[in-house]
Design goal:
It is a single chain. This protein is an alpha+beta fold. The chain has a domain at 3-56. Helix content is 14%, strand content 27%. The chain has 1 helix and 3 strands. The protein has one helix at residues 3-13; strands spanning 29-36, 39-48, 54-56. A 3-stranded antiparallel β-sheet has the order 1-2-3, with no helix packed on it. A hairpin with a 5-residue loop joins strand 2 and strand 3. The longest helix has 11 residues, at 3-13.
Length: 79
């Protein structure tokens, strides 16, 4: 693993990744979860849908990165 990937992983695990250009902050990334009793816990895996479906780790970076839009808490977005 290269040092850049290790640093991105460290930021992710320390929860200091907000705003960083990595998959977990991309609008095309969908986090995967496991069920633990009555709750769902995120796992270190997800998928990206741009331009096609591919497996990604939350700290990955790709050329299709698009930041998520920040929405106010409690608001429902309608089309």
């Amino acid at each position: 693993m290269n040092p850049e990937t290790v640093e991105r992983m460290r930021l992710f695990y320390l929860k200091k990744h907000q705003g960083a250009p990595m998959c977990v902050n991309c609008r095309h990334f969908h986090q995967h979860y496991i069920r633990d009793g009555k709750r769902h816990l995120p796992v270190d895996c997800g998928h990206c849908v741009e331009p096609r479906l591919k497996v990604r780790e939350p700290w990955d970076i790709c050329e299709h990165f698009t930041p998520r839009e920040a929405s106010a808490p409690g608001t429902v977005q309608r089309k």
